[in-house]
Amino acid sequence: MNAIILSNFHPILVGKLINQDLINQYTKFLYHFFQNTKSNKNISFKEVSEHVDKYAISSANIEKRQVLLFDEIETFIAKEMVNTDPSKYIFPKGFEFLEDSHYGPKIEMRMDWFKTKLGHVFNKFYEYIANKPEHIIHVTCSGYSSPSLAQEAVINRDWNDVKVTHSYHMGCYGAFPAIRTGSGLLSLSDTKGRVDIIHTELLSVHLNLTEFSAANTMICSLFSDGFIGYSLYDENLFYKEGIKNNRAGLKILASHEVIIPDSLEDMTWDLGEYSFLMTLSKRVPVFIRKNIKEFIIAMCNKIGLDFESEKESIYYAIHPGGPKIIDYVVNELNIDSNRAHWSYDILKHKGNMSSATVPHIFQKIINDPEIKVNTKIIAIAFGPGLTATGLLLEKIA
């Protein structure tokens, strides 16, 4: 069977990147408002500020994020907030307290917003690559509609024979099963046409702006919206089309996935009445640290690669579930952190975009002239389950 090549990575910006310090400050406004309204107590803005400063991820680790939920109040956040008394701030529609709800719009309204906002992602991707694929895989864990955005994209372009597959609700590791699915579709195809994978992660629509807890504050300061499209090629088609268009690629050498025992409740992403609900326990980094080396050795063994002797020649695309996650993996593998610097960079400049994050890292790696052809890359991510998944790749051109 021919190898499968990943290429044609195109990150897409729908809104604007907002400064992390400003987002954290606005979170204080929201917390102060909702806590005082909800509890009928007088919680001071000083108390709220100290809480957010203690538990939110600071700009030392994340400088900017795309948070489309705050798009319409960007001017206030950037220019007016500094001179506004929090107790006198009038909230925009959708943020204000509703008599029958402390949680804002119900989930159907949030899904309508997702559908209205994100058709742009498909339109933009197909400005970069106009000819139609054989398959489109739509990846998301943050918004659903039927017909889906992918089906609408096909209908709008009269691509009646393009087949759409949905790869939904797998969280931060979602790119990996989508790539596995795309590889399977290619292997079964008679024509070996292109498979496009498009991620639409609108995580901001699920921010819980009322739960005043350390865990929720960390979550509110970590996740961001992220959008990206890319393509899978059969090896022969890639060398015919990709090279002609001066594109580099990542050849899939091996994949691996396990569900870590006794971790089922440590990371969850459930449907709620008002939004999707996340739990993220303190044990997650510990589970990752304990299992990561064995996991990577098992993946490398699939192609007879001795990880210990080769690890200093390999580069790493580690899903930045948070700053400590990257550190734990780097330290446990005993590798130079510079060999995973794209993970730190993407977290710093865009935040955790769930399933869209690792493809953003791939885009950086594939376009980095310092990484030569035939260099191997190990990609890993984690999600509910607790699921660990990975790819062993090789840069080609």
Automatic annotation (TrEMBL):
Signal peptide: none annotated. Pfam families: Chal_sti_synt_C. InterPro entries: Chalcone/stilbene_synt_C, Polyketide_synthase_type-III, Thiolase-like. Residues 254-396 form the Chalcone/stilbene synthase C-terminal domain. Keywords: Transferase. It comes from the Bacteria. Belongs to the thiolase-like superfamily. Chalcone/stilbene synthases family. This is Chalcone/stilbene synthase C-terminal domain-containing protein. It comes from Aestuariibaculum lutulentum. The lineage of its organism: Bacteria, Pseudomonadati, Bacteroidota, Flavobacteriia, Flavobacteriales.
